[in-house]
Amino acid sequence: MIYELLAADSGVLNLLNYITFRSGAALVTAFLVSVMLGGPLIALLQARQGKGQPIRDLSLEAQLAKQGTPTMGGFLIWVGLFTGTLLWSDLGNPYVWTVMFVTACYAVLGFMDDYAKVSKASADGVSARVRLLVEFLVAALACAFIMGLHGAHTPLGHADWGPLTDIAKQIAAVAPPTSIEPNDPDFSGGVAVPFVNDYFLPLGGLFVIFGMVVVVGSANAVNFTDGLDGLAVVPMMFAAAAYALIAYLTGNFQFADYLGIQFAPGAGELAVLLSAMMGAGMGFLWYNAYPAKIFMGDTGSLGLGGLLGVVAVAVKHEFALVVIGGLFVLEALSVMMQVSWFKLTRRLTGEGKRIFKMAPLHHHFQKDGWPETRVVVRFWILSVLFALAGLATLKLR
What we know:
Elements: H1 2-6, H2 19-49, H3 61-64, H4 74-88, H5 94-120, H6 128-151, H7 163-171, E1 190-192, E2 200-202, H8 207-225, H9 233-250, H10 253-259, H11 270-288, H12 297-314, H13 320-324, H14 326-349, H15 361-367, H16 372-392
Antiparallel strand pairs: 1-2
């Protein structure tokens, strides 16, 4: 909004033309909004929710002691994020609106899940089938639209994906203008292969399915990670910082050409949105640091994971998400391994066995005697290393 109203070619207002300046402004704005809103929101949620978020009995005293803490703290993140983004980003950029669409839809779905848990005073919310159905539907719409955006900058005579090509032609009128276009005909329907310069694995229309898996997988991986005070939001900020840099480099032809990565015109604007996410995350951490005054709930975790996944698709760095979001991947894998092994051994021997003392992985270490703060800080350290490793892949090609 500020960019459209005040941006100028000269003078102090020329700063608004720089993504780096607007990213910093979005971060500070989102942080201040979240911090200022935190106190009143916590008081409101405590009054409305009574006993707060229902806590599962995991035979962990540290978890049971949190009974009564209000949930739905994701609202703090979303108000800060959307305020920072709407004020400082280029609102004519379709990538920004696509990411905000997915984030908002997943946040609403998470809110419905949290509301069901609080109203029923039960740890069971919206059914898993309904949640997954909605998540895949939203992801499909977003990925098809992103494919169209990418197609708008691809020589369409060489890349024809049926109806999606028509979508691309229509989007070309609103896509960010550029005089430089990717030359690879597989750009819109392809997946970038790590460690290889400018090569895309051609998937055609199947790219939408691939993107759906990335977005939904990311959303649920972050959701699994959200189990201790500050555990999910800080790794999410590190991942957002890594993808903000990737988005900036991907959206700049000179940097993309130097690094040998795919050039996606207009994707650089996502750095502003991701910076707003970091600022909002810091504002939320102000109240969520141990001992937490509020939990983000599914209202926050589902939206954050969906945001990260759709950004990875938009900037054509889907495989990098496995590394940058390595902590989320480990948490999700621990759950899948635990459930799969338990079912398999129960079928074979009649008695289910477990790989971990408890899943997700952070509860395994709690069961092993680690205090909550030690688990959280060590997981933060791992998330920094994963983010740096993911950024290193930009030059390893």
